[in-house]
Amino acid sequence: MTTDQNLTLVAALSGFRLLVLANRFGCDTDFSRELHDRLIEGLDAATARVRTIMALERNVLTGEDEFAKYQLDGETEIFGRFAINLLDDLEIDFDTHEYRVNGGDWAIALTADYTGVEINYPELVALTEEELGSLAPIIKDIARETGIAVHAARATYARCAGS
After folding, report:
1. Which ranges of the chain have pLDDT less than 50?
2. pLDDT of residue 131
3. What residues make up the domain containing 56?
4. Distances 152 to 92, 109, 136 between C-alpha atoms, Å
Protein backbone atom coordinates (compact mmCIF):
# COMPACT_ATOMS: atom_id res chain seq x y z
CA MET A 1 0.00 0.00 0.00
CA THR A 2 1.10 3.53 -0.55
CA THR A 3 1.48 6.16 2.13
CA ASP A 4 -1.73 7.85 0.94
CA GLN A 5 -3.63 4.58 1.23
CA ASN A 6 -2.24 4.00 4.71
CA LEU A 7 -3.20 7.51 5.83
CA THR A 8 -6.69 7.01 4.44
CA LEU A 9 -6.94 3.68 6.24
CA VAL A 10 -5.81 5.19 9.57
CA ALA A 11 -8.38 7.97 9.15
CA ALA A 12 -11.13 5.46 8.38
CA LEU A 13 -10.19 3.27 11.35
CA SER A 14 -10.15 6.32 13.63
CA GLY A 15 -13.55 7.38 12.35
CA PHE A 16 -15.00 3.93 12.96
CA ARG A 17 -13.47 3.94 16.45
CA LEU A 18 -15.27 7.21 17.25
CA LEU A 19 -18.51 5.85 15.81
CA VAL A 20 -18.30 2.69 17.94
CA LEU A 21 -17.46 4.75 21.05
CA ALA A 22 -20.48 6.99 20.47
CA ASN A 23 -22.67 3.98 19.74
CA ARG A 24 -21.55 2.32 22.99
CA PHE A 25 -23.42 4.95 25.03
CA GLY A 26 -26.70 3.46 23.81
CA CYS A 27 -25.87 -0.06 25.04
CA ASP A 28 -28.33 -1.50 27.50
CA THR A 29 -26.60 -4.84 28.25
CA ASP A 30 -23.16 -5.89 29.44
CA PHE A 31 -22.90 -8.21 26.44
CA SER A 32 -23.43 -5.34 24.01
CA ARG A 33 -20.91 -3.16 25.85
CA GLU A 34 -18.37 -5.99 25.72
CA LEU A 35 -18.84 -6.38 21.95
CA HIS A 36 -18.31 -2.64 21.52
CA ASP A 37 -15.20 -2.72 23.72
CA ARG A 38 -13.72 -5.62 21.75
CA LEU A 39 -14.40 -3.87 18.47
CA ILE A 40 -12.66 -0.74 19.77
CA GLU A 41 -9.67 -2.87 20.83
CA GLY A 42 -9.57 -4.48 17.39
CA LEU A 43 -9.70 -1.12 15.63
CA ASP A 44 -6.89 0.14 17.88
CA ALA A 45 -4.80 -2.93 17.03
CA ALA A 46 -5.41 -2.43 13.30
CA THR A 47 -4.43 1.24 13.57
CA ALA A 48 -1.23 0.33 15.44
CA ARG A 49 -0.31 -2.22 12.77
CA VAL A 50 -0.85 0.30 9.96
CA ARG A 51 1.27 2.86 11.83
CA THR A 52 4.03 0.26 12.16
CA ILE A 53 3.84 -0.36 8.41
CA MET A 54 4.07 3.38 7.77
CA ALA A 55 7.15 3.67 10.01
CA LEU A 56 8.81 0.76 8.20
CA GLU A 57 8.02 2.39 4.84
CA ARG A 58 9.79 5.55 6.04
CA ASN A 59 12.81 3.47 7.11
CA VAL A 60 12.92 1.77 3.71
CA LEU A 61 12.74 5.11 1.89
CA THR A 62 15.46 6.72 4.00
CA GLY A 63 17.65 3.62 4.06
CA GLU A 64 18.12 3.92 7.83
CA ASP A 65 17.52 0.25 8.55
CA GLU A 66 18.89 -2.48 6.30
CA PHE A 67 16.31 -5.00 7.54
CA ALA A 68 13.30 -2.67 7.22
CA LYS A 69 12.35 -4.05 3.80
CA TYR A 70 12.07 -7.58 5.18
CA GLN A 71 10.14 -6.37 8.23
CA LEU A 72 7.84 -4.36 5.97
CA ASP A 73 7.13 -7.39 3.81
CA GLY A 74 6.30 -9.44 6.91
CA GLU A 75 4.09 -6.77 8.49
CA THR A 76 2.25 -6.24 5.22
CA GLU A 77 1.61 -9.97 4.89
CA ILE A 78 0.38 -10.21 8.48
CA PHE A 79 -1.92 -7.21 8.03
CA GLY A 80 -3.38 -8.85 4.91
CA ARG A 81 -4.71 -11.61 7.19
CA PHE A 82 -5.73 -9.29 10.04
CA ALA A 83 -9.23 -9.85 11.42
CA ILE A 84 -11.08 -8.70 14.49
CA ASN A 85 -12.76 -11.38 16.64
CA LEU A 86 -15.54 -10.00 18.81
CA LEU A 87 -16.47 -13.13 20.70
CA ASP A 88 -14.99 -16.61 20.30
CA ASP A 89 -12.00 -17.85 18.35
CA LEU A 90 -11.78 -21.56 17.55
CA GLU A 91 -8.60 -23.42 16.63
CA ILE A 92 -8.79 -27.05 15.50
CA ASP A 93 -5.86 -29.43 15.06
CA PHE A 94 -7.27 -32.16 12.83
CA ASP A 95 -4.09 -34.23 13.09
CA THR A 96 -4.36 -34.66 16.86
CA HIS A 97 -8.17 -34.26 17.06
CA GLU A 98 -7.82 -31.39 19.53
CA TYR A 99 -9.37 -27.95 19.70
CA ARG A 100 -9.18 -24.84 21.83
CA VAL A 101 -11.44 -21.85 22.24
CA ASN A 102 -10.07 -18.34 22.73
CA GLY A 103 -6.48 -19.52 23.14
CA GLY A 104 -7.34 -21.65 26.18
CA ASP A 105 -6.20 -25.16 26.93
CA TRP A 106 -6.34 -27.78 24.20
CA ALA A 107 -9.23 -30.25 24.55
CA ILE A 108 -9.58 -33.64 22.92
CA ALA A 109 -12.52 -34.09 20.55
CA LEU A 110 -11.96 -37.81 20.08
CA THR A 111 -13.72 -40.41 22.22
CA ALA A 112 -13.79 -44.16 21.79
CA ASP A 113 -15.68 -46.95 23.46
CA TYR A 114 -17.14 -50.35 22.54
CA THR A 115 -19.64 -48.66 20.16
CA GLY A 116 -16.96 -46.99 18.08
CA VAL A 117 -15.09 -43.75 17.65
CA GLU A 118 -16.70 -40.35 17.88
CA ILE A 119 -15.18 -36.98 17.03
CA ASN A 120 -16.99 -33.88 18.29
CA TYR A 121 -15.56 -30.46 17.53
CA PRO A 122 -17.37 -27.30 18.58
CA GLU A 123 -18.64 -25.07 15.81
CA LEU A 124 -18.62 -21.32 15.41
CA VAL A 125 -22.11 -19.92 14.95
CA ALA A 126 -22.38 -16.32 13.78
CA LEU A 127 -24.28 -13.89 15.97
CA THR A 128 -27.53 -12.71 14.44
CA GLU A 129 -28.14 -9.11 13.52
CA GLU A 130 -30.50 -8.90 16.49
CA GLU A 131 -27.71 -10.05 18.83
CA LEU A 132 -25.29 -7.56 17.29
CA GLY A 133 -27.85 -4.79 17.49
CA SER A 134 -26.57 -1.42 16.33
CA LEU A 135 -23.11 -2.89 15.65
CA ALA A 136 -24.35 -4.95 12.69
CA PRO A 137 -24.29 -2.14 10.10
CA ILE A 138 -21.04 -0.73 11.53
CA ILE A 139 -19.32 -4.11 11.18
CA LYS A 140 -20.47 -4.38 7.57
CA ASP A 141 -19.18 -0.87 6.84
CA ILE A 142 -15.80 -1.63 8.44
CA ALA A 143 -15.37 -4.73 6.28
CA ARG A 144 -16.50 -2.92 3.13
CA GLU A 145 -14.45 0.25 3.60
CA THR A 146 -11.26 -1.14 5.15
CA GLY A 147 -11.13 -4.75 3.99
CA ILE A 148 -10.71 -5.89 7.61
CA ALA A 149 -12.93 -8.83 8.49
CA VAL A 150 -14.86 -8.64 11.75
CA HIS A 151 -15.91 -12.03 13.11
CA ALA A 152 -18.74 -12.21 15.60
CA ALA A 153 -19.39 -15.84 16.40
CA ARG A 154 -19.77 -18.02 19.46
CA ALA A 155 -18.48 -21.54 19.93
CA THR A 156 -21.26 -24.09 20.35
CA TYR A 157 -20.80 -27.62 21.52
CA ALA A 158 -23.60 -29.33 19.61
CA ARG A 159 -23.07 -33.05 19.36
CA CYS A 160 -22.21 -34.04 15.82
CA ALA A 161 -20.95 -37.56 15.32
CA GLY A 162 -18.07 -38.34 13.03
CA SER A 163 -15.77 -41.25 12.54
Report:
1. 161-163
2. 92
3. 3-156
4. 18, 23, 10
